[in-house]
Write a structure and sequence with these properties.
The protein is an alpha/beta fold and 448 residues long. The protein folds into 4 domains: 95 residues, Nucleic acid-binding proteins (OB fold (Dihydrolipoamide Acetyltransferase, E2P)); 152 residues, 3-Layer(aba) Sandwich (Rossmann fold); 42 residues; 40 residues, no CATH class. Strand 1 and strand 2 form a beta hairpin.
Length: 448
């Protein structure tokens, strides 16, 4: 081994160049291959692509399943599934990450269709779409039936043959659709919607003959299952043979193993209906006889309890006559009482007439006026006599009367009455009041 020469010229390349060389080599070497492994770390972001790892007990490989290719899967991816992937190996240069770009995938063990069937079955069963409580009963004898099927298949011929043999009066409308292929499920869903909008059928039958699981795959479609479950018209599913069970069969209101069995389940035969009608007629007659006998017994008991109705009617008439007589007497007495009361009220009203009361009041007023004048004159006379007596007494006691007899009242200049002589002074001027007039004098002499 030669020693490393530090001065030897070295070839230096960039990381991107190295990764690019690796990318070309790997992708050219592993352009197409099948890889088997277990799905781990599955995730699906908003882009719709699947990102996961394929692993076994010794290694792990990153993988991507782009949305366009993944849309063709017939089953849902889950962690832990063993799958077989067909694709090519690529190297994602920005991260230098080796990954498997998956073009198609199928499960290991159970086939893709079987796995998709089981996954959808578990999902719809968990939502209650298989619950018998939500399924609608079929009419007892439907007269208008719509059939969704291929018009050229043997299924419709078998269905119509059995149906018209059992009961010829049923009207049938056929809605032609494809019963296999990628567009079959969508056509059946559209047929259900159109028939519901039409509103003519009493029952809808979805049918086709037998075939491989791939041929019957359209009847395991989730959109079709939900359309059947939501249909307001009862739906009968008769897809394939007896051993074939589809999601459409499980969701439908009634599952028939074959198209012929669907016709048998849908209508009863005329012979069976006639036999059933005879039985019902016999039961009706027996019930009518029992009812008639019971009613007759009840009527007899009522007649005994009620007695002769004519006697009860005569008693009732007598009772009515008695009540009418009593009512008439009662009414007459009431009228008589009311009349007397009215007469009394009329008399009171006549007495209480306003003009009469006014005349009485006026007469009373005049009488009171005369009484008042008489009393007033008498009172005035009495007062005048008393006044005259008082006047005579007053005159008798008046000083003027004394003056009239020759006496005089003497007072000084201030008007003070002089009762004694010593109250005056000599030369004082005094006043003497006479019965008529006054005199002024001067005191000449005082004699006490």
């Amino acid at each position: 081994m030669e020693p490393l020469d530090l001065f030897t010229r070295r070839e230096i390349i960039s990381v991107s160049h190295l990764v690019g060389q690796l990318k070309q080599t790997v992708e050219a070497r592993f352009d197409f291959l099948w890889v088997e492994g277990e799905i781990s770390g599955l995730r699906r972001p908003g882009s719709g692509h699947y990102y996961f790892s394929l692993k076994d007990d010794k290694a792990s490989l990153r993988a991507v399943f782009f949305r366009r290719q993944a849309a063709m899967l017939r089953f849902e991816l889950e962690d832990g599934q063993q799958v077989l992937c067909q694709g090519r190996v690529g190297l994602y240069q920005p991260r230098g990450e080796l990954q498997l770009i998956v073009e198609s995938m199928e499960p290991r063990g159970a086939g893709a269709l079987a796995l998709a069937f089981e996954q959808l079955k578990r999902k719809l069963e968990a939502e209650g779409l298989f619950d018998p409580q939500r399924k609608q009963p079929l009419p007892e004898l439907p007269r208008q039936v719509a059939v969704i099927t291929s018009p050229s298949g043997a299924a419709i011929r078998d269905f119509l043959k059995v149906l018209h043999r059992r009961f010829a009066g049923v009207q049938v409308a056929i809605y032609p659709v494809a019963v296999q292929g990628e567009s079959a499920a969508a056509q059946v869903v559209q047929a259900l919607d159109d028939l519901v909008q039409w509103g003519w059928p009493e029952v809808i039958v979805i049918t086709r003959g037998g075939g491989s699981p791939e041929d019957l795959a359209a009847f395991n479609d989730e959109a079709l299952a939900r359309a059947v479950a939501a249909c307001p018209i009862p739906v009968v599913s008769a897809v394939g043979h007896e051993i074939d069970v589809s999601i459409c069969d499980l969701v439908a209101d009634l599952r028939a193993p074959t198209p012929s069995a669907a016709a048998e389940l849908l209508v009863k035969s005329q012979v069976e209906l006639a036999r059933r009608l005879h039985k019902l007629w016999d039961r009706l007659q027996a019930a009518g006889g029992r009812l008639t006998r019971r009613r007759r017994r009840e009527l007899t008991a009522l007649v005994r309890y009620l007695g002769d109705p004519r006697r009860r009617l005569a008693d009732g008439r007598l009772r009515v006559d008695e009540l009418l007589t009593r009512a008439r007497l009662s009414v007459d007495a009431a009228i008589h009482r009311q009349r007397r009361a009215a007469d009394a009220l009329a008399q009171r009203l006549a007495t209480a007439r306003p003009e009469r009361r006014l005349a009485l009041a006026a007469a009373k007023c005049r009488e009171m006026e005369r009484t008042l004048l008489s009393l007033t004159a008498a009172a005035i006379g009495r007062r005048r006599s008393r006044l005259e007596r008082w006047e005579g007494a007053l005159k008798a006691m008046s000083p003027l009367a004394v003056l009239g007899r020759g006496y005089a009242l003497v007072s000084d200049q201030a008007g003070a009455l002089l009762r004694r002589a010593d109250q005056a002074l000599v030369g004082q001027r005094v006043q003497a009041r006479l019965a008529r007039g006054r005199l002024w004098a001067r005191v000449e002499e005082v004699e006490p």
